[in-house]
Design brief:
This protein is an alpha+beta fold. It contains 27 helices and 24 strands. Bound molecules: 2-(butylsulfanyl)adenosine (IVH).
Length: about 750
């Protein structure tokens, strides 16, 4: 169906309804209402950079109005937005008439529209039905168009599109954009050259701008680009990272080439950035192929695009085809399904994750965004709902999100949909501020938000069913126990049926539900003798597990795969690790108390505007708590492990000291045969030895030295003890060297160490 057909169909529907005089009035009212919304939308979009309806909704309304105007020409108004391009300039900037109008593009939405477009071109040019027509295809950038006029190679003025005939003079601002040359680069440049293209902001720059104090929060990169370009103070524009792609031209005193491809190559030679994804196509099939490819890149391009623009490549054909009132006959925009759309927020659900985090999820009246039906979107955390960022700054101009609100949903590529904005004008009367729960909706335990944490967490630990099942899913995941045949879905079912409540239960499944038992796995739906047997076999295999995988599988907060394997290499066996963690727990508790004091100090200082004495607050608490030497040295030893900082150390201590969790871990371990990490190198001179580094190293960093030592199979400790085999002492070595001497430990210098390390 071509856009015209589509309009026609909508028009037919309206015509059926509008034959009688009474109904004519209704049509007139409807048309006035459509005009009103479209004019307001135009103004909001072009002049105020604050759109209030989605592009898709706008397009639909415009098509509807155009159809009605065709059916009822006598009811069409001279100020109809159908025949206008954008909003008139708003008066803050000087006006610039465009010598050649800045055009808009016809839109196509599916392959049929594109076929019809190519067919229209063939018939207009009276080319044979199957004669190939070369077409260029390039991303349609979602920014704002600019026209740059160069006289004798020098930039003389820059103008926005405005209403297509008259734009705004934004020359001073355009001069601050790095992608816009002040002087054209290549030789033989026509005396007059007007280059047109799109000014936009990249995703990264947009995020950074919205996160910085300078930017008020813009709803999307297009608004941010428009708002930044239309600043009265060019210094403000200069501080905003705007970019520019050249793709078209206005007045020229000499040609840029014979084809679109050549002209774009010429613009690139002149010093403009042109889009690297532009391609030449020879058939509709190729055009669609490029469109599909570009759509697949959409999420990773780093800037917003909303479709692909096809243009007739031959400039002589373009000249013959010419223009309609606001659009060229030789180009069309093949739009992507909209990534943003508005809908009603029907409720807020709270999901509880593996570490107890309460995540608010928007329950939406289902809508299509980016071609996919969406009924849930993330609301991030309680601050996001309240209109604040995690560090207390205002987002969405401070608008909070309430159940019943009209919300804008954003979905890019495979990114989880999120609620981007809300429309206060459409808030239902009586909608109340959302109260974030302070107890866990799954288990009723208090949900607490610690100082400095952006999320509220359930304190129920393993008694919380949601945490328990998420922990189990993590336990069987690929990087953890990776049990073949035991995926997230089966774990959920077995948990629901009470077959497994904690990891240890997995290793008891066969005894409880295997052959010879009353309830048998093979009796479960979808299970047979064979599949049950192979699941039991897969579980048996995983009784032998590496220490690193086990540690990762425990799902301790902040403990990722890398840190787990560092820990495994450092402690080498389970008992050594468990004993060390048990010893350091009092130190970890003291450090946590110190962190709480530090946060409180930070907050108090921020309130009164004085300098925060964070270090003092921390050390006051540490000094007061009587930590045994043994705890202190176990703590120091853990912190010394590559990649393990105080936050992770506290988290590990917490997991091991929580009675319930510890009992579950011990039950699990009793079923396992834990494999020590493979000796990285058993040949090396230091393999199996415990080393300590002290003083200043001059030829490698401490981290490098440690990594090298571990790769050679050594164990690196943070403090000297009777177990230390070798101390590597650089200049400035103090108490550790002294202690080593007392204990009769061998001490070497950095050069000697290098001789060993490089062997
Ligand atoms: S060509 C006559 N190419 O889309 C040709 N336009 O919806 C003028 N746009 O006003 C436009 N990327 O602001 C063209 N690669 C591209 C484009 C592009 C974005 C914008 C441009 C135009 C609007 C029409």
């Amino acid at each position: 169906m071509t856009p015209e057909d589509r309009d026609q169909n909508e028009g037919d529907l309206a015509a059926e309804a509008g034959a009688e005089p009474g109904e004519r009035n209704a049509v007139a009212t409807e048309m006035a209402a459509l005009r009103d919304v479209l004019l307001k939308a135009d103004r909001a979009y072009h002049a105020e950079d604050a759109p209030f309806i989605s592009d898709a909704e706008y397009d639909a309304k415009k098509r509807q109005l155009a159809a009605l105007e065709r059916q009822f020409p006598e009811l069409a108004s001279p100020d109809s937005p159908v025949s206008r391009i954008g909003a008139a300039p708003d008066g803050r900037f000087a006006k610039v008439p465009h010598r050649l109008p800045m055009l808009s593009l016809e839109n196509g939405f599916d392959e049929e529209d594109i076929r019809a477009f190519v067919q229209r071109i063939r018939s207009f040019l009276s080319l044979p039905a199957h004669a190939p027509v070369e077409m260029t295809a390039e991303p349609k950038i979602d920014g704002l168009s600019l026209s740059l006029r160069y006289e004798n190679g020098l930039l003389v003025h820059a103008a926005t599109r405005g209403n297509g005939a008259v734009g705004e003079n934004v020359t001073a601002n355009a001069r601050t954009i790095a992608d816009i040359p002040q002087r054209l680069a290549s030789p033989d440049i026509p005396e007059i050259v007007e280059i047109r293209g799109e000014c936009y902001m990249s995703h990264d720059d947009f995020e950074a701008l919205n996160a910085s104090d300078a930017g008020r929060s813009f709803a999307n990169p297009r608004n941010a680009a428009a708002g930044s370009l239309r600043q009265l103070d060019p210094n403000v524009t200069a501080a905003r990272p705007l970019r520019f792609f050249a793709y078209a031209w206005g007045e020229l005193s000499g040609p840029l080439g014979l084809t679109q491809m050549q002209a774009v190559a010429r613009m690139s030679e002149m010093g403009f950035r042109t889009n690297p994804h532009m391609r030449l196509c020879h058939s509709v099939a190729e055009m669609i192929e490029v469109w599909t490819g570009i759509e697949q890149m959409r999420a990773t391009l780093g800037y917003d695009i909303d479709g692909v623009v096809y243009k007739v490549n031959d400039l002589a054909y373009q000249a013959r085809l010419g223009l309609r009132s606001t659009t060229p006959r030789w180009a069309i925009a093949h739009k992507f399904p909209a990534e943003r759309a508005w809908t009603r927020l029907e409720g807020i659900d709270i999901q509880v994750g593996r570490t107890g985090a309460l995540s608010p999820v928007a329950r939406l009246h289902p809508l299509t965004v980016g071609g996919v039906v969406v009924s849930n979107a993330t609301l991030h955390n309680e601050d996001y709902i309240a209109g604040r960022s995690a560090d207390g700054r205002t987002i969405r101009d401070g608008k909070d999100i309430r159940i019943g609100d009209w919300v804008e949903v954003y979905r890019a590529g495979d990114v989880i949909p999120k609620v981007a904005d809300i429309d206060l004008a459409k808030r239902p009367p009586g909608a109340e501020r959302y109260e974030f729960p302070e107890t866990c909706p799954e288990c009723g335990s208090p949900a607490i938000r610690e100082e400095g944490d952006s999320v509220r967490r359930c304190t129920g630990g393993l008694i919380c069913p949601a945490q328990a099942v998420e922990k189990l899913k993590h336990f069987v995941s690929r990087a953890a126990f990776d049990i073949e045949g035991l995926g997230a879905k089966l774990v959920e079912e077995l948990f629901r049926d009470g077959w497994i409540a904690e990891p240890a239960d997995i290793f008891l499944l066969r005894d409880r539900y295997g052959p010879g038992q009353l309830t048998q796995l093979k009796n479960r739906e979808g299970w047979g003798e064979k599949s049950a047997a192979s699941l039991f076999r897969a579980i048996e295999e995983k009784r032998h597990i590496s220490l690193a995988r086990l540690l990762f599988a425990l799902g301790i907060r902040h403990l990722g795969e890398v840190a787990a394997s560092d820990l495994a290499r450092h402690y080498r066996d389970w008992d050594a690790l468990a004993q060390a963690v048990d010893r350091l727990t009092p130190a970890a508790e003291a450090h946590r108390a110190a962190e709480t004091a530090a946060e409180a100090e930070r907050a108090a200082a921020a309130r009164t505007g004085r300098r925060a004495r964070v270090a003092e607050a921390r050390s006051a608490v540490l000094a007061e708590s009587a930590i045994s030497i043994s705890a202190r040295s176990a703590w120091a030893d853990l912190i010394a492990v590559n990649g393990i900082g105080p936050v992770l150390a506290m988290s590990i201590a917490e997991a091991f000291s929580n009675e319930r969790e510890r009992a579950a871990i011990d039950r699990l371990v009793s079923h396992l045969d834990i494999q020590p990490p493979e000796a990285v190198s058993s040949e090396s001179a230091v393999s199996g030895l415990t080393l300590v580094f002290t003083g200043k190293l001059e030829k490698m960093t401490r981290d490098e030295a440690k990594a090298r030592a571990e790769a050679l199979g050594a164990h690196v400790a943070g403090s000297v003890s009777a177990k230390t085999d070798l101390l590597i002492a650089g200049p400035g070595a103090g108490s550790k060297a002294k202690k080593a001497a007392e204990l009769g430990i061998r001490v070497i210098d950095e050069d000697e160490w290098l001789a060993i390390a490089q062997r």
